[in-house]
Amino acid sequence: MSSDFEGYEQDFAVLTAEITGRIGKVPKLLGDEKKQMVANVEKQLEEARELLEQMELEVREIPAQSRGMYSSRMRSYKQEMGKIEADFKRSRIAYSDEVRNELLGDDGNSSENQLIKLREERAHLLDNTERLERSSRRLEAGYQIAVETEQIGQEMLENLSQDREKIQRSRERVSLTIKNCWCRVSCALGKFTVQAE
């Protein structure tokens, strides 16, 4: 069951990396090339949503004691998906600005230079934002793993503590049983020696 989930996870990671790369290119493209890129990203976003749905179905099938770890991973994937969709919307706004300028016929040379400069600055900002968000996602994933590891460690300590208590109780019972046996043997030997005399 979890192997299916992990397969979906790998597919999701590859797909989101491709989407992120394409989103970064959208503001730098023009005309039909840009329209095609936007259509491709929309298609891949739909595939990523379907993968998330499959992963969620897999999590529901996992036994309750193991489900917590997978649920927290799902939350982080959903957050990642939300950030990717927000990045895509921002890149489409850049696309919309360009279309608006084309429709308004703003062909002045200085305006075109300014537009190019603005596009470059926007692309640079989007790249930096993307890097920051990737770093944040990695930190978040690392934190989730640390929390899960701590939970597992605490559960193991609790189990060990319970096992220790059981062993101590068993040892005490065995010790009492041995003492009782010695007492009975001593009493029996005492009676036997009295009778022999």
Automatic annotation (TrEMBL):
Positions of the Vesicle transport v-SNARE N-terminal domain: 1-91
Keywords: Coiled coil, Golgi apparatus, Membrane, Protein transport, Transmembrane, Transmembrane helix, Transport
Domain of life of the source: Eukaryota
Short name of any one Pfam family annotated for the protein: V-SNARE_C
GO CC entries: cytosol; endoplasmic reticulum membrane; ER to Golgi transport vesicle membrane; Golgi membrane; late endosome membrane; SNARE complex
Gene3D superfamilies: 1.20.5.110, t-snare proteins
Family, as annotated: Belongs to the VTI1 family.
Listed name of the protein: Vesicle transport through interaction with t-SNAREs homolog 1A
Organism, as annotated: Gopherus agassizii (Agassiz's desert tortoise)
